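new request in #modeling-help
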Amino acid sequence: MKTDFEILNFFKELNSNCSTVIKRTFSKGETITTYIEKRAQLCILMSGTANLIRYDFNGNKTIIGQFTKDEIFGEILYPTNTNNELFVEAKESCDVLFFNYNNIITGCTKKCKIHQELKNNIFTLIMKNTIKLNTRIELLTKKTIRDKLLTYFNISSYKNFDRTFVLPFSLTDLADYLSVDRSAMMRELARLKNEGFIKKQGNKITLLIK
Amino acid sequence: MKTDFEILNFFKELNSNCSTVIKRTFSKGETITTYIEKRAQLCILMSGTANLIRYDFNGNKTIIGQFTKDEIFGEILYPTNTNNELFVEAKESCDVLFFNYNNIITGCTKKCKIHQELKNNIFTLIMKNTIKLNTRIELLTKKTIRDKLLTYFNISSYKNFDRTFVLPFSLTDLADYLSVDRSAMMRELARLKNEGFIKKQGNKITLLIK
DNA sequence: AAAAATCTGTTGCAAAAGCAACAAAAACAT
DNA sequence: ATGTTTTTGTTGCTTTTGCAACAGATTTTT
C-alpha cells in the first residue's frame, strides 16, 4: 500500500484540468461542507485539521469526528438515516480538495492519464479511513473509561515506537474522541497516575505498564 | 452507486479463471479467517452470517463485529496495532470469496475484462462498509443505553420504512453490537416499554414516539 | 499589555451501568 | 420425544459515570 507521503504528493500535483477536482482554502471556524445535501461528495484534507460536528435538536454541539492532513471525508461515506445536521468545520486553516464519487468511478470526460491513479489513491485513502474507524470502534466498545484510556495509550505507544508520546490533541478532544465525560476522564487519569500506570506531564504521557 | 443486488450478481458470476479470487464454503462454527498474518486479504461474504471475535489475554470471547451477505471484511481493513487475536467465525453456513488487495489494485496478470468492474465493485463495498462503521460509531458515542437503543430503533424504522420492524439478530447480539451489558439493556428495554416509548413482542419492535 | 476564551484539574452528588445469579422460555440437537 | 444449549427476562448490590460547579493555568485575540 502506498505511504501517506506518496499519496499526498500525488494530490498536490494533481492537474486541475482533470475535470473532477476543485481546490479551496478555508480559515479557522469556516464550514468546509455539510452532510445535508446528497451530491456524492468526497473531500480530501491537504493541510490543517477539521471537526465533524453534530447539532442535535436542542442545539447542543457535539464533535463526532476529527480529520487531519491526508484524510478523506464527505457525505458519501456517511449514513443518510439520521436527521441530524452534520457540518465539517475548519479547526485551523485548511486546504481541501473536492471530488464527486461518480466521476471517480466512471472516469473523467477528458480521460486524463492520471485518472486511474487518482482512483487507486482514493481507494487507498478510504481503506485507511476504514482502519481509523475500526480503531475508534475498538476503543468505544471498551466498557470502562480506564480501559478506553489504556487501550488508547497502548495504540499510541505502539504507533510511536515509544512508551512516551504526546497526545495529538487536547484532553478535551480526547474525551470527545472516546465519548466520555471530560471530568470523569480527568478523574480516571488522576487515578491511573496515582496507581502508577502512567506518568503524565500535560499532554505528554508515559505508559509504565506492559 | 450500484445496488447490493447488482454487486452480488457480479460476484456470483465472477469467472474463476480471473486469477485473483478463491471461493470457499464454511459450516457453522468454522473459522473463516484470522487477522493475525498480514497478507492483504479481503473477503466477501456471499451468503450466511459471521462474527468477528476477539479473545483477550484472559481468554474472554467478545463479538466485536458482525457480517452478513454482501459484506466485505478482512485483515487489510483492520488496524495492526492491537495484540489481540481476531477471528472471523461462521455463525451459520457461509460462502466466502477471498481476494488479495494488491492484485485488485494492480490488475490481474490475465488482464481479464471484468477486472475493472471488479475493482469498482470492491470499491463500492468498502464504501458501504464505511457507512456501516460510521453508523455504529454514531450509536456507540451515545452516552446512555436508552439513547443507544432509541437511536438504533430510529435507524431501523427509517431503513424499514415502517415504525415496526424485526431485529435482524438476537437481543444478546444487539447488546454486543451496542457494547452494553445485556441485562442492563433488558432493564432499559423494559423501562422503554413501561413508559410507552416502544411496543415489543419478542424481536418485533414498534416505535411509538417521533 | 490587557481582556477574553479555552483548557486543565478537582470534587460532591445523583443517575446509570455493570456484574452476578437465577428461572423460565425457546431453539437446537440427538 | 427428550435432553441440551442458547436466549430472554428479572432483580439486588456495587461500581462507574455523568453532571454541575468552580478555580487556576494557558492560549488566543484585540
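bot summary: Chain A has six helices and eleven strands.
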